[in-house]
Request: fold
Amino acid sequence: DRKTRHLDIEKTIKDADGELLCGVELIDIFADKSLGDGKKSLTYRLHLQAEDRTLTDEEMSRIQSKVFKNLREAGYVIRGA
Reply:
């Protein structure tokens, strides 16, 4: 919804992983009637990093799955996923 606060979504994302998820950045806000009345779409960039190694595809996929799960459980819709 358009009234949803960015910081609430950001917190939901950050709660998915406290170890490798080192940053969440809002990069775009899209609001258009094609989304429905009173709706908006937010795009985030997630920064993942381990201090001691290169992350594997499996680690990154696991974090993405946790993020998506948290967002869905909070009632958000993930477009294109």
Notes: The chain has a mean pLDDT of 94. DSSP finds two helices and two strands in the chain. Residues 69 and 75 are 10 Å apart (CA to CA).
